[in-house]
Write a structure and sequence with these properties.
10 helices; 4 strands; mainly alpha; single chain; two-stranded antiparallel sheet; 255 residues
Length: 255
């Protein structure tokens, strides 16, 4: 892996690419869905703030080291770690788009559909950086990290948990591509939470940095949040499917 490209951390480069790609994707999706400029701009800002400030705040809270004044220092963001960037993004974006957008279904879809590709960049950053690493393993596809990688033990074959999560996101992209949008308009966020929540909770079992996580019983806090979100989304998708089917039947009977 390559934790640095010259003097610049590879993680920082890919993090910036994640944020920039999100802005670009938001623009094109919003244009396709007929949303106003202010909606995609706000969603893009929420992603940027969630991934930087929000993720730093959540990391500090999780590790009992929250300091409001430290958030005003650029140095603070260059040290330590981040956690929960997507969670912070959703917390910021969802209420704002519901307030700003007239077409709330399309706005909720924008929040979800704009995430997968930027998140792949973010997880590639984790891979090159050596954070979010997996447990030691002798599997043929295990990966090793060099000296200087952040957190990951050097030279030890590990589960490529970053790649596992990227594979989950690729599956989400495929599902988004296969779904008939006319039928599921407004429900793409539920699909994202159901798929990502389930996949992320599963990959957590292979993580080797569990000592850095907060546990709630046998589960990490991330797993618990993901499973709650996934379970609730699956129930709502089932109800949504029945609701849409009933609407279709009512329309056919009317005709």
């Amino acid at each position: 892996m390559y934790p640095r490209i010259g003097p610049v951390p590879t993680y920082s480069i890919l993090y910036i690419l994640s944020i920039l790609s999100h802005f670009l994707i938001c623009y094109f999706i919003a244009k396709r869905l007929g949303l106003r400029h202010r909606v995609w701009i706000v969603v893009g800002i929420c992603y940027m703030e969630g991934m930087i400030v929000g993720a730093k705040i959540l990391y500090d809270i999780q590790n009992a080291q929250f300091d409001l004044w430290a958030l005003l220092s650029i140095r603070h963001y260059m040290q330590g770690g981040v956690w929960g960037g997507l969670l912070a993004y959703f917390i910021l974006a969802l209420p704002l788009v519901l307030i700003l957008a007239k077409n709330r279904r399309a706005a909720l879809d924008l929040v979800a559909i704009s995430v997968p590709v930027p998140w792949i960049f973010a997880k590639l950053g984790c891979l090159f950086n050596g954070c979010c690493y997996g447990k030691a393993s002798s599997i043929p596809w295990a990966i090793t990290f060099p000296e200087g990688a952040r957190g990951a033990p050097a030279g030890v074959p590990l589960h490529p948990t970053q790649i596992y999560e990227i594979m989950v996101v690729v599956c989400i992209l495929i599902v988004f591509k296969k779904l008939k949008y006319e039928r599921w308009a407004g429900a793409m966020l539920l699909w994202f939470l159901a798929l990502y929540g389930t996949g992320r909770a599963a990959t957590e079992f292979f993580r080797g940095d569990s000592d850095q996580h907060l546990f709630v019983g046998p589960l990490t806090l991330s797993q618990l949040i993901c499973l709650i979100a996934a379970g609730a989304s699956i129930i709502l998708l089932f109800l949504w499917r029945r609701f849409v089917r009933n609407d279709v039947l009512d329309e056919s009977m009317t005709i």
